[in-house]
Amino acid sequence: MKTFITIFTIIFIAGCTKGAAPVDEVISGPSSITTWKDNVHGAIYNKATNSVAYSRADANGIFKIYISDAEGNNEKPVTYSGWPAYRQQWVEEWDPTGQYLFCYVEKKDYVNESGHTRSKDDAIPGYGGYTDIWLLKRDGSIAWQLTDLPNNYDNGIIHGAISQDGKLFAWTQRVKAPNVLDANMFVGAYDFKVADITYGSNPSLSNIRTYRPGNVLAGGELESFSPDKTNLLFYSTFETKNIFATPVYKLDLQTGATTKLTTESFAQAPTYTPDGQHIVYMTGKDAEQFPFQVQGSDWWIMDKDGNNKRRLTFMNVKDNPQSQNKYKLAGCVSFIDNNTFLGGVQTQPLGLVGYTVKVKFK
After folding, report:
1. What is the predicted pLDDT for the residue at 125?
2. What is the pLDDT of residue 244?
3. Which residue ranges of the chain lie beneath pLDDT 70?
4. Which of 87, 77, 88, 36 lies closest to 53 in space, CA to CA?
5. What pLDDT does residue 20 have?
6. d(CA 128, CA 65)
7. CA angle 91, 92, 98 (to 5 degrees)
8. pLDDT by residue (tens digit) across 166-182?
9. CA 244 to each of CA 37, 104, 268, 295, 321: distance values in angstroms, whole numbers, following the listed order
10. For the chain, which has fewer Cβ within 10 Å, the N-terminal or C-terminal residue?
C-alpha cells in the first residue's frame, strides 16, 4: 500500500477530534473492519513473504520503516546506516519477491532558498518535498539511491506503484511547489513517471516516461498499475482545477489518453484488485459531516470500467456499527487477496494521525 495522506489532510485544520481505533471486528453491509495496528501508516502486504512493511513516526515526528508478519506481530525496524536518523523515511512498495523495498527518503542537506524555509514537515510522507527514491534490501544491509532530484521546494516524490511482475515502477513527482491561493495548485503540481526497473548488483530506473494529463500543471497522484501493465489509475485536478473535486481516471500508457471513472464528490486512492476486475477507491460521496468536523471518506468499489459503484464501508454514517460518529478519512489500500485489503484510516484532518485496518468484503 502507498503512503496514506490525501489533500484533505493538508487543507482542513478545524474539527480535528481524534478517534480511537476500534479493536474488534465490526460488520456492516458488505464488509467487516478490524483494526490491524494502531498508529501505523502506509501498510504494504507482500504475498511471497507473508509480511507487511509500514511506517510510523517517532517522538520527534520523524517517520521510520518497520516490517512485521501478516498479523502485525514480530515487528522489526529496518533502515540503512547511510540514512540520517533525523530525516523522514517512508516505505512505498515491495518488489514481488519481498527482498527489496522501494522507499522515499528525505535529502540530508538543507540549502538556502528564496521565499521558503524548509522544515521537517515538508518531507512528511504525502507532502513529499525534498525526497528521493531509494531501493532498500529488506534486512537494511544495503540501499541504492535511484533518483537525485533538485534539492528545493519545487521538487519531491509522493505516491508510487509497482507492476505485479516487478518490472515497472511509477511515481508522482512534484514539479511545482504548493500555492495555497490556487485551488488547482494548492498542494503543488505533479507529473507521473513510469520506469523500467533493473535489480542485480547495481539497481536502477531506466527508460523513464513522463505523463502530464491534459498537458497542464495540476495536482494529483497515481496509485495502481493494471495487472497487464497497460494502464495506471490516478486522481487529478487537471480538468476540475479544484482540489476539492478530484475524479479518478485511467491512464493509457501507450497513448497517454485518459478515461474518467468517477464524477461524484472527491475520489482518490484508486487501486486494482489483484485480478484486475475491480477498483477500490475512497470518496466523500454520501459521507456525513459530523458536528464541528469536516467531511471524511469511505471505501467504495467499482468494476474496472467504472460501472456498478457500491459502498464498502460506513465509517462516516451516523450510528452505523462501523462509525464512531467522528471524522474518518479512508486512505490508500494494499490487497491481501481479491476480497481483503489493509487500509489506512486517518482520524485528524491535519498530518498523519490514525491507524491501519483490515477490511474484508463480499
Report:
1. 82
2. 87
3. 1-20, 23
4. 77
5. 64
6. 16
7. 80
8. 999 999 999 999 998 99
9. 30, 26, 11, 11, 28
10. C
In the prediction, which pLDDT does 224 show?
98
Cell numbers describing residue 57:
513516526
- Residue 8 has a pLDDT of 42
Extract the C-alpha cell encoding 178.
Answer: 504548493
pLDDT of residue 208: 98
Q: What is the pTM of this model?
A: 0.93
SS (H, E, C) the chain: CCCCCCCHHHHCCCCCCCCCCCCCCEEECCEEEEEEEECCEEEEEECCCCEEEEEEECCCCCEEEEEEECCCCCCEECCCCCCCCCCCEEEEEECCCCCEEEEEEECCCCCCCCCCCCCHHHHCCCCCECEEEEEEECCCCCEEECCCCCCCCCCEEEEEEECCCCCEEEEEEEEECCCCCCCCCCCCEEEEEEEEEECCCCCEEEEEEEECHHHCCCCEEEEEECCCCCEEEEEECCCCCCCCCCCEEEEECCCCCEEECCCCCCEEEEEECCCCCEEEEEECCCCCCCCCCCCCEEEEEEECCCCCCEECCCCCCCCCCCCCCCCCEEEEEEEEECCEEEEEEECCCCCCCEEEEEEEEC
- Which residue in 219, 244, 247, 215 sits closest to 233, CA to CA? 247
Nine cell digits for residue 102: 522501494
